[in-house]
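Review form for a predicted model. The reviewer records the input and the model, then writes brief findings.
Reviewer: anonymous (R2)
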Amino acid sequence: MASPAPRPIPLAVALDAPPDPGRPAAPERFDAAGYLRLVRLAERGTLDFVTLGDAFGRPGPDALAVLSRVAPATTRIGLVPTVTTTHTEPFHVATSIATLDWVSGGRAGWRPDVSLTAAEAALFGRRPAPAPDAAWREAGEAAEVAARLWDSWEDDAEIRDRATGRFVDRDKLHYADFAGEFFSVRGPSTVPRPPQGRPPVVIDATGTGPGGTDARRTAAAHADVALVRADDPLTASAARDDLRARARALGRDPDRLLVLASVEIELYASGDAVALAELIGDWYADGAADGFHLRPADPGRDLRLLVDGTVPVLQHRCLLRRFYPGATLREHLGLPRPANRYARTREVSR
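Model under review:
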């Protein structure tokens, strides 16, 4: 009896190259058309999603705005912008991500991040920069508020009945009524529930640097996908085990938390691309990670070699799909669409 084919490896790519402090940013890096070319290339390689970094303290376009521009011009690949939750309101974050999910037809995710510097705090003038642990607790609350606001509309709340003039069934709108350490949000949202129900939460849970442990704690509690920067499989495996244990201790099913090894790559020839496929296959076979998030040193160069060199090798070995069987990011990642918590409560109370 033939053994079953291995499950396709979740594979994602970062589109933001590391900043070079000795060289000013090139104008074309701020051109949405350039990002669109890269995303279409990644989509040709059937990658699960792209991430686009963002931060208050660096020049460049807003990641969420760029991917909202890219969304209508692509069809299958997931789009995951970084959204800083410090100095921002979770209501605005939730409606913006929901809008991206609608515009993309269910392909949005989001990557919460925090702002820790005094210079970034001064841009807003609302409060001092928070300590890392407080900033990540706040990010966790923002993720919880967003999930509740997305659930504040039941899936069939929209009526759009011209004859009666009714747009929405008010019985299927719900107050979030969230009160936490940092936020008090009543809701409901002003945007209908996203196509995915709740767009996946992606968090860098590497666990090193300022706030690293706090980020890992937040990822274990709220992330659908955790990214762990690693240079070797032992580091990646240890981080995966730690995250799964933390998720289990919080009452979560650890199998619902995908841990992707985030690996920096530099590809200069077809030989490098094949070697990367070997590395991915070996790490995956050893159980070091559930998938991979690749960080090209030069997206314009490395991504093409990845798609034309690494991807075909992985596909030949049945480790990567040849087409997208689903339409949403959750379907790509094998994540179920969450039930609406308020709809369940309403049914039980009847």
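Findings: Residues 132-151 form the longest helix (20 residues).
Further findings: The chain has a mean pLDDT of 92.
Recommendation: see findings above.
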